[in-house]
Amino acid sequence: MLRGEFEMAGRRLLVETELRPAAGRNRTQVNRQPLRRTAELQEQVPVLTFQPDDLLVVKGSPGARRDAIDGAIVSLRPRTAEDRRRLAACLRQRNALLRQLGPGHRIDADGRRSLDIWDDRLAVAGETWAEHRRGAVRELQPRMERFFRELSGDRVSVVEMSYEPFWLAAGLQAALTEARGEDLRRAATTVGPHRDDLHWRLDGLPARTHASQGNQRCLSLALRLALHETMTEAAGAPPLLLLDDVFSELDPRRQGRLLALLPAGQILLATAGEVPPAARPAQVLWVEELPAAPTAPG
Fold first, then answer.
1. What is the spatial distance between Cα 298 and Cα 280, in angstroms, rounded to a whole number?
2. C-beta of residue 228 within 8 angstroms of C-beta of residue 238
């Protein structure tokens, strides 16, 4: 059981989470009241995390970038989590139907009608989520470029972040219709938001392949800083900020720049090394490895 007390907008909140790996789903309650949906916790206790794996947002797979922008959308507007769940549910149902109708099966009129229905539903859910993504990109882009320039010390480079899926012009339903034969062959949906990529360019070149690792790290940090600033403006108060060992991969100059850019508010910094001198923490807690418990005699 994990337990924490928070004060948000003048309210004291007791948050308790029971980790249940065997059951497959954790349980969380706020002030002894169970949450109906996970997004409620983000609504009541906004939290933003910086972690070393954030670098994969720039240099990793398209899935890492999709997860980053989708997480940003829900952080900015927690109620969009329902749209995200609807998209995932439609995708699961359509894929299940494709497996039933795939190679080796004869598709009759009922099968085609069922697939038409799920094409319609997936198209609506997918286009809704694509608009959320495009809106988040427009909102975060200028802030991200500003923070990148501050972090990197490069005042002239142009940072571009874009999300323009190829199916957007004609619509997702048309793309699903065109891809139906391939989808049936593979028994999976091959087009839609779950296959799209978010593109970052630095001075016109793909950041994933052409930016230095230092600049890639600055881009990932700039995205988080842009998200923090936007969340603060939207909520009227800064979210709790968790920094998980983000300084170990930065040179001293960039460490100093990041510390100077960190916004006001409660910040928890975890590090496996020394705390940067410029951090000036209000409190330092040392966590040491506990000795292993003695083994029982055989």
1. 51
2. yes
Rounded to whole angstroms, how far apart are CA atoms 291 and 233? 46
- Identify which has the larger pLDDT, 157 or 167: 167
**Whole-model pTM?**
0.82
pLDDT in tens, 14-44: 888 877 776 667 778 888 888 776 666 766 7
pLDDT at 2 exceeding the cut of 90: no
Percentage of the chain lying above the pLDDT 70 cut: 92
How many residues in the chain? Answer: 298
What are residue 47's phi and psi, to 5 degrees? -135, 140
The widest CA-to-CA distance across the chain, in whole angstroms, is 71
> Residue 105 has what pLDDT?
66
Average pLDDT, the chain: 86
- Judged against a pLDDT cut of 90, whether residue 195 lies above it is answered with yes
Q: Tell me, letter by letter, the H, E, C secondary structure of the chain.
A: CEEEEEEECCEEEEEEEECCCCCCCCEEEECCEECCCCHHHHHHCCEEEECHHHHHHHHCCHHHHHHHHHHHHHHHCHHHHHHHHHHHHHHHHHHHHHHHHCCCCCCCHHHHHHHHHHHHHHHHHHHHHHHHHHHHHHHHHHHHHHHHHHHHCCCCCCEEEECCCCCCCCCHHHHHHHCHHHHHHHCCCCCCHHHCCCEEEECCEEHHHHCCHHHHHHHHHHHHHHHHHHHHHHHCCCCEEEEECCCCCCCHHHHHHHHHHCCCCCEEEECCCCCCHHHCCCCCCCCCCCCCCCCCCC
